[in-house]
Design a protein that fits this description.
heterodimer; A: 168 residues; alpha/beta; Rossmann fold; 5-stranded parallel sheet; 9 helices; 51% helix; 8% strand; B: 66 residues; mainly alpha; 67% helix; 0% strand; elongated
Chain lengths: 168, 66
């Protein structure tokens, strides 16, 4: 099993999708998962009881207002929602953290600024890297993803993810 | 050329959309859903999904995040 290393900052998408799959436990593979209040509220709107299943390393923390101002100054930033803006602003205070995000636009902006990014698919695969679940269990979870979550993904792309899994 | 479709929506979502129309932000439901559809399509191209999946495999299995 890998050592738990990175901290993470969560946007709402992965929290919602992982809770839909009963997979919030995979967040235990991070030392800390910072969640801005805006993101927590958004996740709660979609999944009222997500916090009940969340691991103990999740901490709600507001972004520094100055960091929000810095991001607001970026022109592309206006296309992002409040949770995505808050998560990116919080990253200014935790630059060793990985941003957990599924929104394609927010990920593009984040990567332009050198912010490391990972989404729901990567988090489920991470269970293999950390030996949290067996390969057949991870395969079954990924196969169920379109039916049990609101993460929309073409079957051909999901198959590519399944094909990437190591041999059982 | 336009096509006509029938859709079913959660009533709470429809109320929110209707409020935007009443506030004058959109002409009608057609205007809203055409805008919403285009907005989604422009931000979720096939190329972006391909990049997303390749990145997720590298991040999830090999801890390569950039």
């Amino acid at each position: 099993m890998q050592n738990i290393s990175n901290a993470a900052i969560a946007d709402a998408g992965p929290l919602i999708h992982l809770d839909q799959m009963g997979w919030l436990f995979v967040l235990e593979t991070f030392s800390t998962v910072w969640v801005p209040p805006e993101v927590a509220e958004e996740a709660t709107r979609h999944r009222p009881h997500w916090k009940d299943s969340a691991p103990a390393n999740i901490h709600i923390e507001a972004a520094d207002p100055l960091a929000k101002q810095w991001w607001e100054a970026e022109r592309k930033f206006v296309q992002l929602d409040q949770g995505e803006k808050a998560a990116l602003a919080l990253w200014r205070s935790h630059q060793d953290a990985v941003l957990l995000c599924d929104d394609l636009q927010a990920r593009t902006v984040a990567q332009e600024f050198g912010v490391p990014v990972m989404g729901t698919l990567g988090l489920i695969l991470r269970a293999a890297q950390f030996s949290l679940r067996s390969i057949p269990e991870i395969r079954a979870t990924l196969t169920d993803l379109p039916r049990r979550s609101t993460l929309h993904l073409k079957p051909a792309l999901l198959q590519r993810v399944l094909d990437s899994l190591p041999e059982e | 050329m336009n096509a006509t479709i029938e859709i079913s929506l959660p009533s709470q979502l429809l109320s929110k959309v209707q409020k935007l129309i009443n506030d004058g932000l959109f002409k009608d439901l057609n205007d809203f859903f055409e805008t919403a559809g285009n907005y989604y399509l422009e931000r979720h191209t096939d190329e972006m999904w391909e990049t997303y999946v390749e990145h997720e495999i590298k991040a999830g299995l090999h801890a390569e995040y950039i």
